[in-house]
């Protein structure tokens, strides 16, 4: 009989403060991604949609919507950290976009576990604070976000890896 492994995120007990997780593969951002996300979210900012306008800005071209960048940053972490183990996102803080993302850039993410504690009001769950960082293919930091998540503790009888 062969073993069966189901991909999942980490149980609360498996998170270790100070650990950095590198999330791979990266995600190359296309013009279609940017236009679809920007129009889907009703963001009419010309800097994301209007090539003629954007060519006259200090950037000289359209930029990727920063909310797409944030969503992709968090999304890149899901399979490794929270797939099937998260209860809820509790909040985001210290969101920064120190450099723009352009069409054709590839985003790579990493996450530092900065804090964790058992929930006082929800037995069997814990709060984990994660600092997500996105870099482009040149290693430039393009986004940083601190996120608090509510995560399930390991269920009774669940094998430890």
TrEMBL record:
Gene3D superfamilies: Hotdog Thioesterase (3.10.129.10). Residues 17-134 form the MaoC-like domain. Pfam families: MaoC_dehydratas. CDD domains: FkbR2 (cd03451). Belongs to the enoyl-CoA hydratase/isomerase family. This is MaoC-like domain-containing protein. It comes from Rhodococcus ruber BKS 20-38.
């Amino acid at each position: 009989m062969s073993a069966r492994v189901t991909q999942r995120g980490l149980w609360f007990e498996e998170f270790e403060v100070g650990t950095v997780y590198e999330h791979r593969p990266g995600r190359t951002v296309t013009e279609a991604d940017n236009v679809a996300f920007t129009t889907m979210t009703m963001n009419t900012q010309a800097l994301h949609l209007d090539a003629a306008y954007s060519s006259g800005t200090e950037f000289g071209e359209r930029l990727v919507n920063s909310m797409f960048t944030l969503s992709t940053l968090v999304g890149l972490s899901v399979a490794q950290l929270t797939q099937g183990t998260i209860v809820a996102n509790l909040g985001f803080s210290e969101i920064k976009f120190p450099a723009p993302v352009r069409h054709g850039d590839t985003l790579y993410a990493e996450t530092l576990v900065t804090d964790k504690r058992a929930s006082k009001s929800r037995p069997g769950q814990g709060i984990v604070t994660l600092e997500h960082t996105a870099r482009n293919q040149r290693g430039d930091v393009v986004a940083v976000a601190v996120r608090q998540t509510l995560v399930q503790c390991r269920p009774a009888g669940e094998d430890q890896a």
